[in-house]
Amino acid sequence: MKFIHTADWHLGKLVHGVYMTENQREVLYQFVDVVGEEKPDAVVIAGDLYDRSVPPTDAVELLDEILFKINVELKTPIVAIAGNHDSAERLSFGSSWYKHSQFYLSGKLTNSFDPVRINGVNFYLVPYAEPGVVRQLLEDDSIHSHQEAMKRMIGKIEETLNPNEPNVLVGHAFVLGGVQSDSERILSVGGSGCVGAELFEPFSYTALGHLHSPDAITHEKVKYSGSLLKYSFSEAKQRKSISIIEMDEKGNFEHRYRSLTPSHDMREMEGYLEQLLDPQFYEKERTQDYLKINLLDEGALIDPINKLRQVYPNVLHLERKIEMTDLKKKQSFNALRSEKKSEIDLFEQFYNEMTTSEFTVDKKDAMSEIIDKVLKGAGSR
Amino acid sequence: MKFIHTADWHLGKLVHGVYMTENQREVLYQFVDVVGEEKPDAVVIAGDLYDRSVPPTDAVELLDEILFKINVELKTPIVAIAGNHDSAERLSFGSSWYKHSQFYLSGKLTNSFDPVRINGVNFYLVPYAEPGVVRQLLEDDSIHSHQEAMKRMIGKIEETLNPNEPNVLVGHAFVLGGVQSDSERILSVGGSGCVGAELFEPFSYTALGHLHSPDAITHEKVKYSGSLLKYSFSEAKQRKSISIIEMDEKGNFEHRYRSLTPSHDMREMEGYLEQLLDPQFYEKERTQDYLKINLLDEGALIDPINKLRQVYPNVLHLERKIEMTDLKKKQSFNALRSEKKSEIDLFEQFYNEMTTSEFTVDKKDAMSEIIDKVLKGAGSR
Questions:
Q1: Which positions in chain B touch A96 (Cβ < 8 Å)?
Q2: N or C: which end of chain A has fewer CB within 10 A?
Q3: Considering only CB atoms, which chain A residues are within 8 Å of B72?
Q4: Is B184 helix (H, G, I), strand (E, B) or coil?
Q5: pLDDT 10s digit of each residue in chain B, 381 long?
Q6: What is the nearest CA distance from B261 to chain A, expressed in angstroms?
């Protein structure tokens, strides 16, 4: 049984004020070609089909068009879930009809964890949901974090799961495990946003969406496909790909990547203005790429962005290396990372940076009380 | 062949700050019951399924639920078009899948005017579109009004229409004809928003949406079903119903109404505060209805809205009969209606009421020029 694992299409994404829809269309057409070549038994899309709950209409039309090509024209079953960027309710519309054509779309989490069975493989669909939603749905007041929510849902799945069959979980979550856990730790103070990779042990393969790099975790069976395209300059050095999985009837699988190639890459460039505007330099460059340019010049420059855009039309962001505000930002960010501060100190720092009012003793007391409560709650889990 | 004609559901409608979704759900459940009883061969929904292009999520869920009950559970084909309140693109999503279950949803106007054939009847779907959209689609620069757009589209339909078969047009437009034409004339200066009923002559029946009263036109074959519910106090005295049509193979039909009954009516009440708050009075009243109350008292009253809400919890709007602003409004409205003014005079009056700046000679000249152009354009049709 062969399936393709992809995720994080983010249709309708706006990057530095530029809609990515045409780039997405280009790469999705390549994707449709890959589906045509590979002839998989299913295409799995692990959430964030759209970039926002109300995507622009051309993104809606693009998704409709691409899914129709895959599902109806190429007769390929689709398994898809909502991610945190999708509106579960809006995405769900019509899903009762779609399943007649083997397009299984799980937008809104329900109490039923029955798998979708395709060619001998059971796909368990777990769309993104806030812990509070899972708490209500499973009527379990002990659920306060994504870790607890996922654990309980997988517990429900295990009640009927047959471990002798190949089982695939399709989820959209921030899963920790392997090398990345340290550097990404800071994104989620208290860890409530994270889910441990060990939870997915019962499954032959876990097809994840949420983190945009296929290398976000290094785990034998729990994998991100990565996003369709680079969606921010922090992803400039990530490779982008889709995963092809071929699974036998015991759940053993082979996994390989295939890449899609947008005509415009997204990347950073660094240099002095004069150098970047020198034909000898730029004639070797792919000048149409989406660029973040870091200028090394000191002192005043006259309208550098427009000069650069004469050569590089898709400069999305310009940064001056030596700017006091940048330095200050960097300093405070580094300070935040290196110091082991208490929660209340972190909050005080945040408060002082964000507001102009004083963080009075009264305010501090009130906040401390809340933090204590939360920490106690977390301790008693 | 039997079909039900309904329109203007306006799911997600907000009336004076109150969401109508629960009332809509109640009445739509009755509608589903009627479909179960009548067992029609099709349900026709002539546009404005939603009240706005991005409806609230519970409206999205309600529409999904109701259409699923009708189409899948009751196995009844559905023919539906987008109205001016719907987003053509958003509503269209998934329609390629729906038609496999005989749910024919036409959101965005396309160049194909092939009918949907159900049980011997041809349904021609004409979703709402601005004249500019039709102009582009049909590549016909002469289209500037809804009248011209509809005429051209019907012309396209006639190229292949078989007049010996029963043909039904499903449209969403402001159609004039019969008794209402005079009073509604004022809504559309220049007439560019209106479509003449005579255009629909080629069809056995025209199922319209847009105007909310089934009595909006009195025409043998061109009919509005009216909206699902009363959606403003101006509709307080309109009857609300759905139409049941039984058509023979020659296109002759019988037409009857069935009504749906919301538990809360929408109506106006008039009286003195003291009287309205008198138990002897209100014990005979349906106090839960959505009410616009016109108070006849003169002079100051202390917090009348909250006093009234003790008895009538769903007062949506309170009006004092004798207020100078009201009188003034009424006078100017009546003046506007009774006088035969030229377009430029009407505009000058409008300008003076809407702005605080002077309608100078320059402005008047510019506007006159525009009006002349438009009128000339209208004359050369």
A1: 64, 68, 72
A2: C
A3: 96-97
A4: helix
A5: 999 999 999 999 999 889 999 999 999 999 999 999 999 999 999 999 999 999 999 999 999 999 999 999 999 999 999 999 999 999 999 999 999 999 999 999 999 999 999 999 999 999 999 999 999 999 999 999 999 999 999 999 999 999 999 999 999 999 987 444 343 344 444 456 899 999 999 999 999 999 999 988 889 999 999 999 999 998 888 889 999 999 999 999 999 999 999 999 999 999 999 999 999 999 999 999 999 999 998 888 889 999 999 999 999 999 987 655 555 555 665 665 566 677 888 888 777 766 667 888 888 888 888 888 877 765 444
A6: 27
> Beta strand pairing status for A78-81 and A42-46?
parallel
Partner-chain contact B89 A57, CB within 8 Å: yes
Please state the separation of Cα B277 from the chain's center in Å.
Answer: 35
CB contact under 8 A, B101 and A98: no
Burial label for A256, CB within 10 Å (0-12, 13-18, 19+), is: exposed
For chain B, list the domains and their CATH numbers. Answer: 2-258 (3.60.21.10), 266-320 (no CATH), 324-379 (no CATH)
Cβ of B97 and A94 within 8 Å? yes
Residues of chain A with Cβ-Cβ distance to B54 below 8 Å are 54
B246, B250, B274, B286, B287 from B281: Cα distances, Å: 45, 55, 10, 11, 11
Least Cα separation, residue A50 to chain B (angstroms): 13
Report ipTM for this prediction.
0.75
Interchain CB contact of A94 with B (< 8 Å): yes
* Amino acid (one-letter) located at A152: R
Residues of A in contact with B60 (CB under 8 A): 89-90, 92-93
Interface test with A, best of B50, B97, B98, B99 (most A CBs within 10 A): B97
